[in-house]
Each structure stands twice: as C-alpha cells, then as structure tokens.
Amino acid sequence: MLAKDIRQKYLDFFVSKGHKVIPSAPLLPENDPTVLFTTAGMHPLVPYLLGEAHASGKRLANFQKCVRTGDIDEVGDDSHLTFFEMLGNWSLGDYFKQEAIAWSFEFLTSKQWLGIPINKLAVTCFGGDKDAPRDAESAAAWKKLGIPEERIGFLPKANNWWGPAGQTGPCGSDTEIFYWVGKNNLPPKGSNPANDEANWLEIWNDVFMEYNKTANGTFEPLKQKNVDTGMGLERVATVLQGKKSVYDTELFAPVLEKISTLAKVSYEENKASYRIIADHLRTATFMAADGVKPSNVDQGYVMRRLLRRAIRHGKKLGIDQDFTAIIAKKVIHLMSEIFHELNHEEEILKTIHDEEQKFRKTLTCGLREFEKVIEAMCEKTLSGQTAFHLYDTYGFPIEITQELSREKGLEVDVKGFETAFRKHQELSRAGAEQKFKGGLQDHSEISTKLHTATHLLQAALRKVLGDHVYQKGSNVTAERLRFDFSHPDKMTPEQLSATEKYVNDAIAANVEVLCETMTVDEAKKSGAIGLFDKKYGDQVKVYTISGWSKEICGGPHVKRTSELGHFKILKEEASSAGVRRIKAIVS
Questions:
Q1: 91 pairs with which residues across the strands?
Q2: Same structural domain for residues 210 and 170?
Q3: Of 352, 533, 562, 534, nearest to 452 (Cα)?
Q4: Is residue 301 part of a domain?
Q5: CA 406 to chain centre
Q6: What pLDDT digit, counting tens, does each position of 438-459 carry?
C-alpha cells in the first residue's frame, strides 16, 4: 500500500466517523513564540483544545507536515526523520477514550482499511503517578478488543504522556500502538514494548488531553476532555510495504536513486550519509516552501544546519559539484501533487542553491583546518574557542564540529563555544525547538492584545501604502508583535506616523471585535482579508472591527479595541526581497 493510499484511506475512514477534514497548517507556527516549527498535528489546534470553538466542528482529521530536530543525530538509522507527515484526528470535547481506541483498532486491523494482523500489535498505557492515575480504562478497552493482556504494557510519564511543546498548555496520558519488527515472524510470549522496546515500532498514538499544565508546574483539569490522535505516515508505509526502513519506501527511494547518480560511493557502502542527505534536503525543501531562509537565528539557523550537514555528507560521498538543488527538485516532483506550496520551484531551489554556494567556498578549507587542529591536540576535548573559530571563519554550525569530533572520538567544549559566541554576537541560538517560556499557544492578555493589533496594523498599512500590502508573516510574543508585509520600499516617517495614527484612532473608537463563522467564499465576498487560502477548511472565522478591519483568523482577540491601550511602532526594516517588517508594542 503506497503512502498516498494510506493517507487517503485514513481521511476516508475518519470522515465515515463524522470528522471534517482540515488542511495542513504551515511549518511556521502563527503567533506562537514557544516553538520554531509545527511539531505535531495538534500544535495549530491548541486554542480549540483549550475550549475555543472550531469553525469545522468538534471532530476533525488531517495530514499535517511536521518538523522535529530533537533526534537529528539519530537520522540515518531505519526510522528517524526531521520532516514527517502526521495523520491525525481530534475530538474537541466530544468522544473520548472508548471511541478513540475502538476506531484506532478498527482502522489498523480491519481488512477494509489497513488489515494489520492483531498478533503483530501491542500497546502501552500510562502507569500513573502523583499527577494522574494509572490508565486502567485504556488497558481494559484494548483487552476487550482482543489485544492479549501480555501485549499491554504500562510505562511512566516519560513514555506515555503527551506534554505541551512549551512549558505550559494542554496535556494528558496517552496509549501507544506498536508493530512487531523483530527477526521472528511473530513476537515471543510475554513480549511487549514495555519490556522489549527494540523489537517494537510505534505507529499510532492516542492522547487523552484532560489537563492544562500551569506555569507553576501543576496540572489543572481542562474544561473539556479532548482526544488527539497521531499516526506517522512514513512509519506505517514502511510496515505495510514490508520494508526494513522508511528509506526503502517510495517516499525516499527515488531521492536516494538521484543521490546515487552523483555520488562516488554506493548506498550500501554509506547508507547513513545517503539517508542524512535525503532527509535533510527534503526538510529544507519544505522549509523553503514555507518561506524560511537560512540564517544564524531561529528557523533559519535550523535550516542552515540541515543544509550544511547535508553538504558535508555529500562531500563524504565524493559529490564535488553543487547538488542540493538537484535533490530538492526531485523532492518537489515527488511531493508537489499533495503539497501545492512546493510549486514555487524556482524560489525554493534558489534559496537552497545559494546556501550551498555560500558554504561550499569554505567547507574544504574548514575541514582542512579541523584536521590540522586535531593533529596538534594532546587532549580529548576540542576547545570552545576553536569551535567558534570554525563557526565564525568557515561557517561550521557547532553541531557539525561536534559530529566531526565524535567521528574522531573527541568531545567539544560547548560551554566554551557559547561563551565565545556571546562575546561576538548579540543573538544566540538554543539548538532545540523550544525557544521561549510560556504556553504552547500564548493566550495571555498582552499577547491577545498584540495579536488583535496585527489586524489593525495590516488594515492601516493597506490604507497608507495601498492594496498591494498583504501579510507575509507574523510573530507575537509577550513583549512585542512582529509583522512582515509585502512592500518594495522603506517606509517614510510620514507613512509610519499615519500608520500609527490609524491604529490608535481605531483603539480610541472603542469598537467591538465581532466573530462570525462562514465559508471561505462567503468570507471573501464579505470583503475579509485572508492569507494562504490553502490552509483554510470549509468553515472559517472572520473577525470584524467595523469600519477598520475584517480578516479571516483563528487566533485570540480582545472584546473591544479600547482594551489595546496605545499602539507604538518600534522599528521598520527589510525582511527579505519585497518584504518589510514592523515591530510594535501596545501599552
């Protein structure tokens, strides 16, 4: 069964259970400073998990593109990826454990759907702790469906609890479904993922969101109980196709074949480098499609790290020519039928190719410098100052220096690197997908004000600069709003002043912020502004500030404009070609 068939069957199944299909959200979270990328299907749905009504109802399903880099060092094995598709279904205060488990089981085992033999499945449930009780209800439901008791394991919070991506947010216990991947055709008696982890592959996860983790670390009951289900498409395709690795499926095989036409080393001789290149360039291609540009901070740093790591592994395969855009083009041709944002091929390939050219100029010299340094070393730790020199002079992200050092049996003084880095840069990078403290989707009072202010800001810019202005990106933290918009020129002081005045006049007018649910077509006919039409479902929310602004949006908003206080623009600057950026506050 091909991945495209699994994806469609999944959606068809949950539609048959009363779910509405919603589109995949972008990789860049909107108005959420707590993570750099969308890491799971539930991430864009947090406001609705917390109780806000979703325009498409209480039962939802989709396939969501995700990026996680926490396991980047594991990429190259049989299953780890940085970009993946998560098939998900949600209950927003509707059905709960019994239905979720029954439907998971039906979809996986029914011959009408995936037809996986029950004797190749096992499950784990939450074992309980001081915050929440042992999940005996889920275990009983699995047993009733036919999963033998010996195939049901109980594990602690580290294994069977889905927490928020940030420090606070909706969370709860989960029950996970595993497929037998051991050498024997069937698992031996008594084996389950709790006692035989290496031979079981997780393919499905039902999260039961009953709690909200607060800033002081306590767990409060949510006002509604939710279900968040996730199934990794690539892993399930591997299982159903009888493959040993995700890289053996049709999602990767054509990419690996393209790499082999450029490499001087065969796939069998260096599987890890082939796989790292295939995974990292697939991820970078999707990042570029969503507007990420390589840089030294935030999402751009992650993209740069992936691209430069892929280029370094290309060198290990003997690829001396520019090759990243060639592989990215293959990814586009494989995936653009499903993900239409990949159709901006020229811009995507230029972004990737430009980064390769920039790094290639110094890669050889940097590798030579690294070899020279370790030859002269007496100790087993590379100094932080040397690591920073490789970064500052040759463009080596610290992770590449660490990887090179590991291959030589050396450690790196990362703290020393960070100290040297801080001395030369105002900005530092965190190296993980967590960035700021706060909830997964920040609905604090100030963030809500700033989010509402972005609506008035866009309306003001269109009034002052013209109707060519559209939002190109938005990021809200508790300190400020950041708004990217289409405009070719630097704004004049007079234009900035007029923009501020428009917003503050709207605030002074004390207008009510009204919300209506309607179809996308109805929203357009009503004059509502919306960006990235493909991300919207059949039903959308339209927020109207009568006489001032009308937009399609799903974020938090104040009740009346007077709640915003006073709006002030801090800075206006270039973001990228044809895109300007404003940073502003309310007080």
A1: 59, 227
A2: yes
A3: 562
A4: yes
A5: 28
A6: 333 556 788 888 889 999 999 9
